[in-house]
Amino acid sequence: MTTSTVYPNSASVIERIGNTPVIELKSFSTSNVKMYAKLEWYNPFGSVKDRAAFWMIKNAEKQEILKKDKSIIIEPTSGNTGIALAGIASHLGYKVEIVIPEKVSKETKDILRKLGAVLHETSDDLCPRVGAGTDQSIALAYAISKPRPDVYYMPNQYENDSNFAAHYESTGPEIWSQTKGKITHFFTGCGTGGTITGTGKYLKEKNSNLRIVAIQAQKNHLLQGLRNFEESAKPELFLRRESVVDEWYTATNEKSFRMVKDIASHEKLLVGPSSGSVLASMVDLAKENTKKDQVFVGIFADDGRKFKSLYKEIGIFTEDEFDKYVDARNHLPELAYE
Ligand SMILES: Cc1ncc(COP(=O)(O)O)c(C=O)c1O
Fold first, then answer.
1. Which one is the CATH code of 10-43+162-328: 3.40.50.2300, 3.90.220.20, 3.40.50.1100, 3.30.240.20?
2. Tens of pLDDT along 36-88?
3. For ligand 1, what atom is nearest to the CA of residue 80?
4. What CATH number is given for 50-153 in this structure?
5. CB of 277 closer than 6 angstroms to any ligand 1 atom
6. How far apart are CA 6 and CA 13, in angstroms?
């Protein structure tokens, strides 16, 4: 990616957004299905959300909404979007305030503070509940930003089409070319719906037979970044292009975390909870599949480094096991804030 903004050291970090690797998960592939993961934590701020954050900021700059050293970007988010916005904004000369549920992991909040973001904590559930009328994060972000439009800009990832465009213009084309057009099924977890609608629409335009599988979390979940669409209405951004989804899969906490452990022991990859959800759905669908030469690609949205305390608390890894995976540094690149 390129940017025309001239700020010290901004280009090198910003240019690292996108072009993440796709790897085969050999121990999970079957005779009919090859399993691939797109490792989104290779983005400089550690998740798939770097794409949406960069596209939203870039678009606001294009529209001359943002003013260097004056504008404050404010966003309600459960973590990754905040980290991406804070990291990218600080490189481009904007301040960031994040409205965040207090339940979000300590590691995530520490990273946000390290990146210079001001945090406003609410007692919400893990993810903001769009449309439920009770969502404090979204309401508070509006309450802070609305009276001062000269200073505050709220990208609002739940409605902003740049979130869709990021994946239509980058994630989709990358996967198509990385699989040489052989992908048959695309899997991703859903929060705002930006990843699934953007990537899904691009891939379907390339091959209308391709299957798009959307993963939601169970109710009352611990899967940061995902959402349950009975607890929370689908965001406006998702509703605009929902028809791209062919199949839904509901990931449980139990299966997702068990898979986090299996991925670590079989592939030596330390993944975030939602990657466990994604691979659980890929493995379950592969069991039903009878066709030959199937190519499944799943989005692994972030790695496990932010989840040390959660994984320890729920007994996925001991501290020693966790540290061993981090020390091995298998597919754990250095992040821009380390
Ligand atoms: C941690 C995490 N963040 C974000 C996303 C995608 O979110 P969105 O639907 O907002 O593009 C996912 C999807 O798997 C995720 O796991």
1. 3.40.50.1100
2. 999 999 999 999 999 999 999 999 999 999 998 899 999 988 789 999 999 99
3. 3
4. 3.40.50.1100
5. no
6. 12
Ligand 1 lined by 295 (C-beta under 6 Å): no
**Cα–Cα–Cα angle for 39, 311, 185, nearest 5°?**
30
166 lines ligand 1 (CB under 6 A): no
Please choose from 78, 104, 158, 190 the residue to mutate so as to test ligand 1's pocket, defined by most ligand atoms within 8 A of CB.
190
Residue 43, ligand 1, Cβ within 6 A:
no
Are domains 10-43+162-328 and 50-153 of this chain identical in fold? yes
Distance 169 CA to ligand 1 centre (A): 17
Instruction: Mark 220-253 as b/e (b = at least 16 C-beta within 10 Å).
Output: ebbbbbbbbbebbbbbbbbeebeebbeeebbbeb
